[in-house]
Design brief:
There is one protein chain. The chain has 8 helices and 9 strands. The chain is an alpha/beta fold. The strands form 2 sheets. Strands 3, 4, 5, 6, 7, 8 and 9 form a 7-stranded mixed sheet that branches. Strands 1-2 form a two-stranded parallel ribbon. About 40% of the residues lie in helices and about 25% in strands. Helix 2 links the parallel strand 1 and strand 2.
């Protein structure tokens, strides 16, 4: 019965998005979600430019962006691990690109208050700051989840003692520290994996274009240079 109900959800989602997206496709509008983190934005824009896809970016909050992709309002989005797009609706609507780059998510603490976290059982007594609309490993074991709009909010929640620990990627942490010297430090790695972009199931023709763009940018070093530029810009801002 559970399998049948999930199958019904998937069939229903595909039918709805195919009928609702048709008009948008006829108008030639390709809406793309803006990357949810600042360091990823120029990388995502460069990939789409290399792919020759003209897009209209929609600056939506993370939670609304996920729903808008399922509904077919957004046809492209970036950058996330496939493991965090695993609801029945998302599995029915996402076509994942080849990997873009490898990222690591860390626990972040107030300076001098780092505690080792080995697994979800170490989080049951902690208030964990995250981003609304993001999924996290062991989130069902968080003592309490305190959501903000972005990574700046995560650090603010920690600074105000409204959270005990936050979650942030290494690149984003360096970006935030370049803007302001937060009294924070990283703990151990929570999770790691490759980040991908997503193509809506109604536009499979866009997938090979983006994959080819990623491959070319990896082959000639442009992708590495963009990642390095993010690092350099971060370090320069910190001076």
């Amino acid at each position: 019965m559970k399998v049948c109900s999930q199958l019904a959800i998937i069939i229903g989602v595909v039918f709805c998005v195919c009928t609702s997206v048709g008009a948008g496709q006829a108008e030639g509008v390709v809406r793309a979600g803006q990357a949810s983190t600042a360091p990823n934005a120029p990388i995502w824009e460069a990939i789409l430019k290399e792919a020759g896809i003209d897009v209209v970016f929609s600056p939506l909050p993370a939670k609304r962006k996920r729903r808008s992709f399922i509904e077919g309002y957004l046809l492209l989005d970036c950058c996330h691990p496939p493991m965090y797009r695993d609801t029945p609706e998302e599995k029915a609507t996402h076509l994942f690109t080849d990997p873009i780059y490898f990222a690591q998510a860390y626990y972040v603490f107030r300076k001098g208050e780092v505690v080792p976290i080995k697994d979800g059982s170490d989080l049951t007594s902690l208030r964990v700051a995250g981003i609304r609309g993001f999924d996290y490993m062991w989130q069902d074991q968080f003592g309490d989840r305190i959501d903000g709009r972005d990574h700046t909010d995560i650090l603010t929640l920690l600074e105000m003692h409204r959270a005990d620990v936050g979650i942030i990627t290494g690149l984003q942490f360096r970006f935030e520290m370049a803007k302001r010297r937060w009294p924070m430090e990283l703990g151990n790695v929570m999770a790691s994996g490759y980040l991908h972009a997503s193509v809506h199931v109604t536009r499979p023709d866009l997938l090979p274009k983006i994959n080819a763009a990623i491959a070319r940018m990896k082959a000639d070093g442009r992708l590495d240079k963009l990642l390095l530029l993010s690092e350099v810009a971060t370090s320069m801002s910190a001076r």
